[in-house]
Amino acid sequence: MTKDINVKVLQPYSFYESLKNDKDLTEWINELNKIYYQSYRAEEYLKKFGAQLVRNYTELLKGYKDISPTNRCIYLNCWTNLEINRHKSEKGINDFDSKVENFVEEVWEILKNKKGKHCNRDKSLFTKEHVNIRKDLLDFCTNRDILRKSNGVYSYGKLNEWISKMYKKYIDDNYCKTYEDILDIYDENDSPLKIADNCTLYDIHATFPYFGVRHIISFWEHRIRSISNCKKHGNAGFYVPPDPEVLDSDDVSSSPILIKITITAFTIVSIFSFGLILYKFSPFGFWLHKNIINKYKIGVDNEEEKNILSKETLYLNFLNSGKSDHHISYHPV
């Protein structure tokens, strides 16, 4: 029996919990003071924040190998941005370019130069809510990639059940209403809803795969290819599918009508191709050509001869009938 999926036992959960840990920071405050002399004059909450950043950058980024280095860096940026938002909110700081941001940018740059790690600072201007949405999507994609490599620990059925559950979490709950402001504010490549080409709500199929050889995909479950298509569906509820004629071709993964047409056309082409091959290269084709088709040709030729003879006979009759109408005669005077 394969296991049920519990994401709390996977590394993304424990890694982020370690990033948030603010205990036993004395060693890291001393390290901060060594690399950044201005920290002596910083306020206490900034020192603590800076110490966490030093620890997270120098120690935690090196571990948790189940998570790709790229995703570890994104996690660190998500944590940093959420902490900046928290401290500014608690201190009543409304400035866009505040001392909190300046402190973080300076410490981060020193860490990059001194420690030789390659984790760039993400300065995207996401709100707290949008950072949380981005981090949540990152959790899913990182867990998905780990589960993909689980080597039989989880059955395809369990994996597909989990993928389907997560798909419904992101797409179904409020039928895209959560993302309306994001779609209005950001372009796709700058959006918190896109982390990578295979981790983006702008490409549903790439982000929510099905495991196993046979891909049994519900038509309505994958009816939108991109979160940007939410606007096309308006306020339609998930459990009441819109009329098929309303949907654009870009919104539908696979239409039953289109599938039937494709199958029918493919069947006709296959039968024609098979018949052509059979006629050209098989003994049956040779026999068919020799006996039936040749007989047909002979029959056609005979019929044509009959038609020609018939026409010639009619022509001679016509000439003869013409001659009988003209007589040379004389009358005695």
UniProtKB/TrEMBL annotation:
Alphabetical list of InterPro entries matching this protein: Plasmodium_Vir
Transmembrane segments: 257-279
Keywords from the UniProt entry: Membrane, Transmembrane, Transmembrane helix
Pfam families in the record: Plasmodium_Vir (PF05795)
Protein name, UniProt field: PIR Superfamily Protein
Highest classification ranks of the organism: Eukaryota, Sar, Alveolata, Apicomplexa, Aconoidasida
